[in-house]
Amino acid sequence: MGSEFEPRIERAIEKIIAETGLPRGQVVLALEGLDEFRRRIPQDVLESSIRETEKDHQESIESTMLKARFGQAGSIAFTVQTVHHRHPTWLERFGDMTVKPATGIPFAVGVLFGVFYAFTTLAGVITDRFMLPVFEGPYDRIMRIFVERVFGSGFIHDMLLGGEGVGYLESLGLLTTGVFVPIGVVLPAVIIFYLLLTLLEDIGYLPRLAVLVDTIFHRLGLHGYSIIPVILALGCNVPGVLAARVLATRRQRFLLITLVGIAVPCMAQTAVVMSIIGPFGFGWVALIYGILLGLFVGIGSLLNRLLPGETPEIAVEIPPYRLPRLSNLAMKAVVRMRHFVADAIPWVFVGIALVNILYMVRFIRLASDLVAPFMERWLGLPEEAIYPLIIGFLRKDVATGILAPMLRNGTLDLYQAIIIVVMLIVYFPCAATFVVFLKEMGVRDTLKSVGVMMGVAVVTGGLLNGILSLVRA
Prior knowledge:
This protein is mostly helical and 473 residues long. The protein has 22 helices and no strands.
């Protein structure tokens, strides 16, 4: 049987065996750097045995042994493997194309635009053609008969049904707006979004998107895999914040969670944008999302410079493209929608109840009087704008029912509505997301994050007011 290693290493091994009486396997492991066995060899014996080998190779014995091991592995692999020539499949060529910037970036823009267009279009069809007829038809008749019989009139009656002579979107009743907004308006969009997200995940596109945006995210102190929590947050900020656990450091988690709170609108916030600004044209909607993208990049770059620390690298596994299974799509989408059902609907009821209570005790009137000068001078907003901003802390989508009639009766114009909608997205997460902030970051980092959000909201609102004032003029 021939030598396992080159002659110089074999001579060193034989010398150590002769001096110590250790088995060959233990000596080899000692030379490879395993401390447990190296301690069994006297230092003078070890040094004299490996001196010739280290001098000839100009490197440590550990490195030489490691290279020898790789050489042995390569020799074994060459002996047993059979290499066949084949051309890459069209899926493999397509996979390479989607991670190269020249072709991958236009493809990514097309995919994201297609997802946005699909979920807004399909969700609108579901709401207008199916949900609205059900809510304003059989549901409305049954619900009103019940409420009228049990609560003929008074505060409870008004809280359940909301204002008279207005639609379900703006009546602000628990059984009207409170049920219709989360189930009739937001839930269809959530369903469509999570089906599309799960489709992109199952076919293997999301890891490629992570590789594609890695350079951009590194400038924000993050890595490309952060795109996954961001996309999840577009459905609901709660799972997006929870998904930030995949990040390696506390600094990265703070950066991403803060940026999610500032510039990543969830489905409820998207519903506000589409319901309030959408009727004025896609260009205004694009403006709002352009502002949010600018804030995401700008605030992320600023925080990355201000916060000490480095961005560690992580390996992103890129699976091959594959056809998804419909059963998996449905199951994953249902699991993800549980966050919305569990977190959103209860807070919608709390928010609407609070609006009615605050209105009854005149708290909102007092708050309006206090902040009216600031809102008018810096933000260019009427004092009535305090209503959606206060209630937006609990649920952003409830603000839709307040803003819609303000637009119709002329209390707000388009430019003021844009300012309010942007501030609703930027200034504070909803109550459910705020609770998750506390859970994931602790009180200290949550207060820092909220401070950043409030500051960004005030500055952005004032700048928008100045710019839109010039456009209005």
